[in-house]
Amino acid sequence: MRPTTSSPYRRTSDDTSQELAENKNDVPNYYASNPSTLTTSSTVHKFITGTGDDIFSSILPALKSAESEVIFITCFWARSSSLSQLSDTLRALSVRAEARGGWKLRVRIGLSSLSLFQKLFQPHTVRGQTYPPSTWVKKFGLPSPSELKGLDLEIKSVFLLPFSVMHPKFIIVDRKKVFLPSCNVSWESWFEGCIELSGPVVSQFVRFWSEFWAQNDFDRSLPPPPSPPYPSLTSLSPPQTPSPTPTSSSGPAQTHTLLPSHDIQTLFLPSPHHLNPRFAPFTSSPPTSPPTPLNILLLTLLARATTSIYIQTPNLTSPPVLTALLRALRHGVAVHIRTSARLMILEQLVTAGTTTTRCVRKLAKRHRALPFSSESTLDEEARVGLTAPGTLRIEFFEPRVGVNGTAEPQQSHLKLLIVDALVTVLGSGNLDRASWFTSQELGVAFFDGEVAGRVRGAVDQVMEGRMRSHYG
Length: 472
Known about the structure:
Elements: H1 13-20, E1 39-50, H2 52-63, E2 69-73, H3 81-100, E3 105-111, H4 116-121, E4 129-131, H5 136-140, E5 151-157, E6 159-160, E7 164-165, E8 170-173, E9 177-181, E10 190-198, H6 201-212, H7 217-220, E11 255-258, E12 264-271, H8 293-304, E13 308-312, H9 319-330, E14 334-339, H10 345-352, H11 356-368, H12 380-383, E15 392-397, E16 411-412, E17 416-419, E18 423-427, H13 433-437, E19 441-447, H14 449-463, E20 467-471
Parallel strand pairs: 2-3, 3-5, 10-16, 13-14, 14-15
Antiparallel strand pairs: 1-10, 1-11, 1-12, 2-8, 4-5, 6-7, 8-9, 9-10, 12-19, 13-17, 15-20, 17-18, 18-19
Helix pairs in contact: 2-3, 8-9, 9-11
Pfam family, one: PLDc_2
Organism: Lophium mytilinum
InterPro entries: PLD-like_dom, PLipase_D/transphosphatidylase
């Protein structure tokens, strides 16, 4: 099913103009005066699940086919098998670029969290810090500059105190194709997802990157394609490069799901960072979250849901989301939540003052108190004329018992929202307080029932035997 222009899930520019006007001081803010520019379309190719290693082993080969440019944005960066895979990819790109001759292949890497020292002492501005080639090996675990002579490589980090990490993760290849993974360059063996995109939506990613990450006007334009006598990289014989780091050919949580090939109505959803966490410990009403495009769209979807809401999120501590879910339950919408009980607990306490477990317990308690719920204390006469609340199902991720090796995911890190089996939102944003109030995030909404069904089916398949029922 594809949405019509009258779909209740769509927001027009008139709906959002007043809210987005508050974003005029955000960085980036190019959409604030005309939110309709975020409306686009996309061709979705594949949805991949697995650990971070599984995801990178699936998508990094596509980077080796780059002709002009690779833009690689992530949040957390650590020495890991994923980093080894990326290093091998960069070596292969460099060797092929040198063999082709001519201009170097441009590679731009952006990240936010490398170490506590980096976050405390780097320049705390949106311009961030750019690192010289002499730091690539020791600081980032990358190949030496002598191994990457065929690349025009720059690495930049941005972090702003106290809590503003740049949380998006995306990869753009030649400004023709985008990969949107949930994983970082990290050692964590977590359950992740990634969607592969092309079409007009790619220009949205390029615009977002150029407005925030690009160092200069030179970076804003794509390098020219190779011209005679230089052959394309893909026409060259495979170079002799170091053997790649061994990886599992198919992890226990790895799936590849083909998605419908038609154009899909799509919304690009940036969510800029904010320095003020808006803590309000002495008020009973939840604080208002910054009206970013991502926050606005998610609240709109939750408010306008008619039948079902499916959520998979690492953590769930955002007050506006919890309030919206309770409201949806009151209106008879079925809510299914899959999250983690013990993921980044210290971070939750620092940024939210609570934990996911506490928040979902409170949500369950409030659901039980709703009229018509199975445990409601209202008598039959008091229930007359009231709408029966929707069902609430809460599950915690747990590793599958009996699966040996590090390939088994230990936590769920996927960020996924599906509303009414029609609208799918993927990206970097968790449904926790940090993502909603301080971190930079990025999401994409797809208005297509077939996409929603195939993505949900792939996730359900992997979650079998990996969920522990908490409520409902």
